[in-house]
């Protein structure tokens, strides 16, 4: 039995460069990298030294605060470089892949018989734990805690993001294994949401509470779904996992091996032939980017979608959690009288001589230009048009900016993640960095209240 | 130009040069890592520009009306009025050029100068807020306002009304209305009475007082002025309802053309720049107050001998087409910075503006116009309204909290087990 939930507020950002539904195998990468920026709030402690040989699935480092939490190598090979930044903080770990891949094999866990402690230990050992994230704070979940429920969104509304219905085809066994196991870690339900008219393999799984969502972005964001299904209260915890990470967890549970393989979508208007690639976490972006070809040199490569992704480069690496890589033109150019002439080729939420409202189906070719300068908050009522959560977005942002902990709590900061503010950031006339403001607010709240 | 901007980068005068540059070009800034990588097409300049576009027809009309009122006061209103023959004439427009344009020039010149000075001192970019304020100011003052007076008021309004709070986006009071209020309280004789609304009226009155002969006195009482003196007969003899709606009546420079203001308002609603909630609720508020007063008259609680009779008996809906109510509702009450910020708050805020505007109109015998005072008052109360609206959201959240499922940590239960064992 499923419940239909329709989201009305929001904005679909239709962009040029949707991935064609064919999957190619990406060229094997020489070097794989784990970027620490992908794990917000984790302080790594190295387990292996530079130059050491590791197998795929073998731990590279652990979380200083939760020593059981292991982070594993996606491939077997030699740890050739530990890139450090200011104050010797580890930024990137680079692994030179072996020609012959060897995978560390764990003994299989009898999930039926295991209790939650054993399951947690098994996932932690196998390096699958970092795929489980928690709210509040949008960080890797603390294995010491118990969530009230687990949320999985199989509905994709983010611009150009990989179509989960497509990439999850044939992964039913892995998904079922992962969900059955995770279900034992919560007293509550495992909420799975899919698109209303989708044929997602997620919909047929057992042991889930299925929800069918429809409506514009951000209906596919898990934060929106949590808010509509069972909002988080102070003191409560929910976990979220993305479906493509469930596949890795599921395979680990079924075979005892950590398989970093995933299908990603290479998209964006700068890509000549946008399509899907089978590759591995941490692979060099160039292994598939140049396979599809790019239109120009001056492009922005993004790990993730254009709203929430992180900036990368053609010689960068695929992020730990990403299943989409976007390439769009850089917009580092001046535009004469750009602020008052009619605009037909950009998306806007207003109709102030901008005409995207007349062309709801048109696909736009947006650049990274900010289309304006940073200003104080001036307009009101705009964010609410694209923000379906029962939260006052601008007031919450301001509470974060002035670091007012009471206000942050009362206005609902526990319920949100930075990505929930990606759409308000997109339409912001004052060009404020909403996601960054929310991230800093969450960090402060976690630090002060924990 | 790009080179000039680079040359002055990091220097003290940089904001000034950047302002010129940004006027000509949309910037080449690209999105930062960690935020959204694409952004929508709108920025603050485009937003402000849209409001200005909605004001330009009103400004043009007011320039013609300046002349029309001036010549009509001298020669009498034309019979068989024709728009092209009597209104859209070069003579009328010329009065507009010599009277209205200087007000506009002083408003922008002085206001932007203050903005530039503050931008340079504080080292931030010149903000766009004054682009709208600058065109609003000349439209809400009497036509013969001396330019020095306007300049003083603009300096006061921009510095005290806006910059001391931190600039555009931080101010509590609408700067344009702060300027208007300053003029009203500092130079009341120039701002009220029946000699200020038509060009030369005051000048001629002064000449006559000095004993000049051969000069006819001209008067341009506003509709509200007539009504405040319980002189409805004289008013309706002179002006029809259509005159009031189209704006062929005396008043502050740009407040009269209700039709064009209505179109401007619809344009702002269509472009999603201004809040329709505030506009609609303000109209409702003024109608409600007007109806109450009409009802008071109908019940004969006030009689014709009362000083309030003229305005109280004025048909409730006509309040919207005389005076500055329509102008205030469309262009001033909808200021996003000083108005209520929550959608529900906007309904309350707008309603009270309309309601109080008509109330002040009726009960203020010295100056029968209450719009700017009502809006300023509600500017002050807007944060309070928002506060209570937001508390509603907070309360909902707190209510949910009673059903919260807060589960213990594993380590906690372990600790409990250990405790149990030792006991």
What order do the helices and strands come in, and which of them pair?
The complex is a heterodimer of chains A (450) and B (423).
Chain A: E1 2-6, E2 20-25, E3 31-35, E4 44-46, E5 53-54, E6 59-63, E7 70-72, E8 77-84, E9 90-97, H1 116-126, E10 133-135, E11 139-140, E12 149-153, H2 164-167, H3 172-183, E13 190-195, E14 209-214, H4 222-229, E15 238-240, H5 243-255, E16 261-267, E17 275-280, H6 286-292, E18 299-303, E19 310-312, E20 324-329, E21 335-336, H7 393-401, H8 405-410, H9 422-427, H10 434-448
Parallel strand pairs in A: 1-14, 2-17, 12-13, 12-15, 13-14, 16-20
Antiparallel strand pairs in A: 3-9, 4-6, 5-8, 6-7, 8-9, 10-11, 10-15, 16-17, 18-19, 18-20
Chain B: H1 2-7, H2 14-24, E1 25-26, H3 44-75, H4 83-87, H5 90-122, H6 129-139, H7 147-161, H8 175-186, H9 188-191, H10 201-209, H11 223-228, H12 232-238, H13 241-246, H14 258-270, H15 276-298, H16 309-313, H17 325-332, H18 343-363, H19 371-401, H20 410-422
Helix pairs in contact in B: 3-5, 3-6, 3-14, 5-6, 5-7, 6-8, 7-8, 8-19, 14-17, 15-18, 18-19
Q: Characterize the main sheet of chain A.
A: 7 strands, mixed
Beta strand count of chain A: 21
Proportion of beta-strand residues of chain B: under 5%
Characterize the overall form of chain A: globular
Counting copies of identical and different chains, the oligomeric state is heterodimer
How many helical elements of chain B? 20
| Estimated helix fraction of chain A | 10-25%
User: In whole angstroms, how far apart are the ends of chain B?
Assistant: 82 Å
Strand content of chain A: 15-25%
Mean pLDDT of chain A equals: 89
CATH-derived topology of the largest domain in chain A: Rossmann fold
Using the CA coordinates, give the radius of gyration of chain B: 26 Å
